Amino acid sequence: MRPTRTSVLLTTGLVTLLGIPAAAAADTPSTLYVDNNRNVIDCSDDGPGSKDLPFCTISAAAKVVQPGQTVRIKAATPYAEAVTIDRSGEPGKPITFVPDGPSAASLVQLSGGKALKVSGASHVVVRGLRTSGGVQVSGSSDVELDRINSAVAASAALVVDQGSTDVRVTRSRLIAPVRIEGGSRGTVLSRNEIDGRMAASVAAVDAPGTVVTNNTLRLNCEAAVSFRGASTGSGAFNNLIYTATSRECTDPAAPRSGILVGQSAASGTRVDYNMLAGFPADGPSAYMWADTGHATPAALAAATGQGAHDLLAPNANGIGPVDGSPTVDSGDPTAPGALPTDYNGFPVTDDPRVPNTGKDGGFIDRGARESEDDLRGVQLEIAQAWAPAGTAVQVKAVADNNWPGTLTYRYDFGDGTAPVVGKSATAEHVYASPCACTVSVKAITAAGREAYRQQSIKVTPAAPLATAFTAQPYLPTESDPNRLVKPLTVEVDPQSAAAPWPIARMDVDYGDGTKDTDGNANPVQHAYKQPGTYKVAVTLTDIKGATSTAERSVQVAYTPAGYVAVRPTRVLDTRTTGSPVQGGAATPIDVPVHYYSSGPHHTAGASAVVLNVTVTGATEDTHLSVWPSGQPRPVTSNVNVKAGGTSSNTVTVPVGADGLISAQLNSGKAALIVDYVGHYQPNTGQRFTPLAPTRVADTRTAGGALGGGQTRTVKVAGVNGIPADATAVALNLTGTGSTENAHVIAYPEADKRPTTSNLNLEPGKDKSNQAIVPVGPNGTITLYTNTGSTHLVLDAVGYYAKDGKALFTPVVPQRLADTRTTGKLAPGATATVAGIPANAVGAALNVTATDTTGPGFLTVYGYGGTRPEASSLNTRPGETVPNHVTTPVADGRVSVWNSHGGANHVITDLFGYFTQG
User: Rounded to whole angstroms, how far apart are CA atoms 909 and 889?
Assistant: First the structure.
């Protein structure tokens, strides 16, 4: 507990530590510089010792330093030199040597066992030096040694001799004996840690007026503190003495004492407020006074009147600058040599949990180090972290520390007003104007240790609640392409609302029958089932009960996307599931768009997928439609098949909001086989460059028919205008002259043939299908047929590459043209199909020929362009033949040319388009 009177100030007997001196005379610089790191700066011992051209050695500076000058020594590279200081300052104008380092704890190092000597000098200050050669002060006066680290294997860490006077050694670590001798007078050792090892830690011989105050000492040999010879009028106060092993002593069995005062030194010598730890009854003697041992402070006090406030403990457990130690707040602040700061430079502080048992109620600790409050951190609580200007904002600091009521708090409210500093853990502030400010608090212990915390605060205009929001497409990102983001997802963000108080509730009506509620005003996402224009309404309610509603029309549409080619995978085969596709009922298809070690899963942000769809074993002539799950079945078709036949086609279709695709026959039943070959996804994948159909292979003219079980490698990239870095090619694959019912597979790597298929063949029929095939090694793909033999014709219609031209935008399948309502397309005639967006450079179409009067083919190409020689699909009398067609577009239109084989009805459906991106 604190005494009721004011705290005792540390003034009596105070040793003043000299600061950096005042400037010297005007004709000499106030500072000299030493820096031996020549990798950073040039130096010269013959130079001026300026900051730009410093001395290389400390000795060079020591030879020329004048009274009042400070020598700043760069504390980076050790100095391999012995340093002697033999020049003197003047009263009030000492010569000073200090480290020039990155922190206040920096030390200048003398390497190689080199020593520091102050000889015949006066008014000298040396701070922050480390040496293994020891320190000697001889015949000198008014010398201050502060923060000296001297560790010597033998001899002494510090010697003060030859009649030196007024030498002060503070806040130093001395590992070897300290000797004060040779008639030296008035030496003060304060706030040091001293371990004498093979001799007395402090030995004063013929050194009157030696003062040893607030040190932490080790008793190894002879004594921790020894006053002998004519060391009269000396004193030991507030010291903490630990016992240590004596095995390094010359005679380990020799008697040892904590404090030893010889017969000739006893006159005027005082001892009090020391702590002796580790002195059991059968151990070292606590005191040896005038050749008489005393085991306890009481015994010493009874015999000599000294040590009345000393403390003794049989062991060192819990003794030192720690909670519960008897050294805390129990020293004498008026003792000669007592300092206001400890070994670390921290101030003397009062632990409020401990009675102040020191002299006159003082609270200085015993030993070199003061106990401190353990400040582990601070939290900041703001009662109104969101409030309108003019509101009184309350903040509270919650510190994690041990000493109650001792912290100082500094609050900064971040609006340019002056910080609030005080002892209160709470503060209040009124913001005059809106801001996005940062409130901070700094908790500060009495020793100067700090903890810091900050928190943002939103100060709003003092106006009514007014809802506003944005509605933007929410898309997968390039940095995280495998995160699930459903197609047609829109993010509704109310951050633009004018809300003077925090929002307690947000209600969103998405305009499609779906509503959402959120407990604050965070952005929310919603996946629409199909594109369209929706009226979105947002209602906000703040913590004060005010409400406001805003609504707006939101256009929901698919976003342009790049293509991601994958290893072809069969995702559905109803021949093995026993659940055929049929008329009147939609079959769901789960399409993977990302691969994990466990297999493919629908976990990414694909907006559309590319499939190869095969229908086989139909019970009647019929057609199959494929569309996004959750949307109405369109009037378009993708695969036409005759009863008992097999037909396949490539399908590009948007993914439903539930990650599924729907497929349904117009009538009858059939087996359905679906192979997944790739997907389109915003902010990732490759861009597409459409080409006028270009022939890349024709076995009728080169290589001969492909036999069953055989493969053929075809170069597709790096030729025919397709760049070598293309990742996939779009091909129209045509089989002709097949000898058996068979299938053809086009794939990238010859040794990794998938179980999927791209084209189903029948003898006597020319059949086509478009395939998007990843490019394999050296720009090649591989072709394979399972049985019989067939000729194959490959026409490239585009490619995908990083530097491609266009991105793909899927659409809800829609019919662009149907000649069954306008009349057949005659042989040799060209029809124009419009309805594609005007900015499209390419389109993904499904083109169907039906009611054909003679065998032939159709060619689809960009409107106004030159008709290529290649075909887009082969027509056959008596059959309805569809094919996926990727084609250039001009002015939102394409041309369809019918060969001279016979008249056809032509049906054109749009599944997506490509735009420059």
Answer: 14
